[in-house]
């Protein structure tokens, strides 16, 4: 797609530079060109066609990258006020709540407003599908180190896919205005 879009951009830049060169080097003595309805129609329709030629491959690639056909693991994440519920749907019945640790329960090395009592455990180098929803109000499920941010909306099931490429602790964080905590 990059090469496709770049060729279109090069063509447009070349045509604009050519038109500028002609404007600077010739005398504009032809008065019939000011009434050219055909020319106005062409330079109105041509940009629309160019945008369509860029948009169609882009949309196809966007939808192809959004879907993982065979994920190794599917996790459902339900947002509540002040905590998240996680459900490993591939392992029926494995459901737990994840609360942020209050400052009194933090141990040395723990991160304030990031550490939780129950962490989600994920495999590395495996495609993971995360289904995200909310039970009460709008929430935002975000893990910046994985490049993820998906809104949790009551009554709607959003989906995101990712692959953890290295072992470690990935902290999720609130990326919206979440109130007292």
From TrEMBL:
Q: Family, per the entry? A: Belongs to the cytochrome c oxidase subunit 2 family.
State the needed cofactors, names only. Answer: Cu cation
Which InterPro entries does the UniProt entry name for this protein? CcO_II, CcO_II-like_C, CcO_II_C, Cupredoxin, Cyt_c_oxidase_su2_TM_dom, Cyt_c_oxidase_su2_TM_sf
Sorted keywords for this record are: Copper, Electron transport, Magnesium, Membrane, Metal-binding, Mitochondrion, Mitochondrion inner membrane, Respiratory chain, Translocase, Transmembrane, Transmembrane helix, Transport
Query: Where does it localize?
Result: Mitochondrion inner membrane
Cytochrome oxidase subunit II transmembrane region profile domain location: 1-69
Task: Return any one Pfam family short name.
Answer: COX2_TM
What's the protein called, per UniProt? Answer: Cytochrome c oxidase subunit 2
- Describe cofactor binding as the record notes it: Binds a copper A center.
What gene name is given for the protein in this entry?
Answer: cox2
Q: What is its main location?
A: mitochondrion
Q: Which GO terms describe its biological process?
A: electron transport chain
Residue stretches making up the Cytochrome oxidase subunit II copper A binding domain? 70-181
| Organism, as annotated | Homo sapiens
Q: Which GO terms describe its molecular function?
A: copper ion binding; cytochrome-c oxidase activity
One GO cellular component term noted in the UniProt record for this chain: mitochondrial inner membrane
Q: Which residues cross the membrane?
A: 6-29, 41-63
């Amino acid at each position: 797609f990059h090469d496709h879009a770049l060729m279109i951009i090069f063509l447009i830049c070349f045509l604009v530079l050519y038109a500028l060169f002609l404007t600077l080097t010739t005398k504009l003595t032809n008065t019939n060109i000011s009434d050219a309805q055909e020319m106005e129609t062409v330079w109105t329709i041509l940009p629309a066609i160019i945008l369509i030629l860029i948009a169609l491959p882009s949309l196809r690639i966007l939808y192809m990258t959004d879907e993982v056909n065979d994920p190794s693991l599917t996790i459902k994440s339900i947002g509540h006020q002040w905590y998240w519920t996680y459900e490993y749907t591939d392992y029926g019945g494995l459901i737990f709540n994840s609360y942020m640790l209050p400052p009194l329960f933090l141990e040395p090395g723990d991160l304030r407003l990031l550490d939780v009592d129950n962490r989600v455990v994920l495999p590395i180098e495996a495609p993971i599908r995360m289904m995200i929803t909310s039970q009460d109000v709008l929430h935002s499920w975000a893990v910046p180190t994985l490049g993820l941010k998906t809104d949790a909306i009551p009554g709607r099931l959003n989906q995101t896919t990712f692959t953890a490429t290295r072992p470690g602790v990935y902290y999720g964080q609130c990326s919206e205005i979440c109130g007292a905590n």
